[in-house]
Every structure is written in structure tokens, then in C-alpha cells.
Amino acid sequence: MLRLISYLAPSIPAEFFELVAKVISEGTGLDVDLQFDERISGPLPGDADPFADGTADVGFLCSPSYKWLRQELHLLPVPVPADVRANGRAVYFGDVVVHDRSPFFKFQDLRAHRWAYNDRNSRSGWLSMLDRVAPLSPHQFFSEVVHAGSHLESLRLVKTGRVDAAAIDSQVLLKEADRGADVPAEFRIIESWGPFPIWPIVIRNGVAKHVRMSVHDALLSAHVAFGEQLRSYGFVRFVEAEPAAYDE
Predict the structure, then answer these.
(1) Lowest-confidence range among 63-67, 75-79, 233-237?
(2) pLDDT exceeds cutoff 50 at 113
(3) CA 147, 152, 158, 162 torsion: positive or negative?
(4) For residues 122 and 41, what is the distance between their CA atoms, to the nearest angstrom?
(5) Cα(45)–Cα(23) distance, rounded to whole angstroms?
């Protein structure tokens, strides 16, 4: 039995991770158990670590968590987005969105206005914004900073006018877009951050090497049998991860 945990749903659809779980199960011949933690984008210092206590073997998490946990984890192959900006690379972007009818057209227009973020462990939704407003703090730059809990909720808050802007994982926007448009009709992108290495997929060191390699190989060949399903979630295939990409 392999125990999988995703920290990235519901912003990245749970069904995508169910597909990956199927790929791993069929590729390894092992049963899998998939769990979700929707509270955070991945553990950081002070959070529970399911890899250390052995309650999770494989994880889907945001890159800041991997930087903290990398001594106890191995990187697995990662998905390549269909986003044309990715240009065949395993990267994504943080897209700053506003309502299409808003008066904001550049990031500086948002000063003294309201911002939503998914959670403080998120590269695209929180940490990138910290870099962008530095040396000011978010509460010095914005009039209000709202913890939404997910990228989808951040989008809802922008759509309803509760906040003025948010930075959204570009894969979330592509999945939410209407009829193949670059961005859902109600929103406008005023700035894009990145590219960032796509969120890592990891496996704990304690998993037997032959199992790790079976999972690795299953992901690399997933596009052969599951290419159409991968594309339906905005991904083309899995490729080898580059550890150095997560050093920044």
C-alpha cells in the first residue's frame, strides 16, 4: 500500500490527483490510498509532517514545503503544463487577476486596495506577493489582506467584489477558463510572476528504492495510456524534475 497526500486540491482538481493515483497503482501493481489536506499548500515549520511520521509516502505540495522537507524526500517526475507560456517546461506562473470591470491595469494601481491569498505556504498566492511588495509588508501596501483558503475562493472573492485582486496559480486559471480562453471571462490578468518550477511531487526516503523507481517510471510513461486524461486537466506529460530549480 502506498499512501498519497495532496495539498493542492481543490484549486487543482481532486480528479487530477485521482488520475495520478491510478497511474501509480497500475504502474506499480500496488494499492494506493489518496488523502487530501485542503488547509495549506504543504507543511512548513510548525505544521504536521506526514512524511516524517510515516503516514504519507507520496505527496503533491507547493515548492516552499519541499525546500523545508527535502532532506527526507526524493523528487519524482513532475507534470508539464499545456500552457503555451510553459513552452514544454515543467513551470507555472502566478497571474495577478482583477475583475474585468475594475479600474486596475497595473500592480501599483492596487496600492491601498484589497488583496486575497490562498494560504501562507503558497508560492504563487502569497510568497511571490511578499517579494513584489517588498520592502513594504502586505498590510502596508494593501488596505486589507484576506485569507481565502484556496485559489478558487480567491477568484470568487474577486468576482463578487469582496476584494480587488489576487495572485492565482496559472493552472487554476486555465482550468477555470471558458471555452479555451486564456482566462475566465470575468477576470483580467494585469501582471504575471514567474515562471516558477511546477509544484513538486515527492516520495519519502523510507520507501524502498525499487518502489520509488516503479513510481518514477509509471509517471514518466503516463502520457502513453493517459495522455487524453492528462490534457483534460491542463497537462501534457511528466518529465524528470530538476532539484536545482527548487533552490530559489
Answers:
(1) 63-67
(2) yes
(3) negative
(4) 6
(5) 31
Residue 150, classed as helix, strand or coil, is coil
Would you say residue 65 has pLDDT above 50?
yes
Specify the pTM.
0.88
Q: Could you give the CA distance from residue 169 to residue 129 in angstroms, rounded to a whole number?
A: 12
What pLDDT does 179 receive?
A: 42
Q: State the cell numbers at 64.
A: 516552499
Return the DSSP state at 6: E
**What is the pLDDT, as a whole number, of residue 53?**
87
Return the biggest CA–CA distance within the chain. 56
Q: What is the DSSP string of 86-138?
A: GTTSSEEEEEEEEETTSS--SGGGGTTSEEEES-TT-IIIIIHHHHHHTTS-H
Q: List, in sequence order, every residue forming a beta bridge with 202; answer none if it has no partner.
A: 59, 75
Instruction: Please state, in angstroms and rounded to a whole number, the distance separating the CA atoms of residues 128 and 132.
Output: 6
DSSP state of 126: I
In the numeric block, which cell numbers belong to residue 223? 502520457
Which residues, 6 or more positions from 138, have their beta carbon under 8 angstroms from its beta carbon? 115, 129, 130, 145
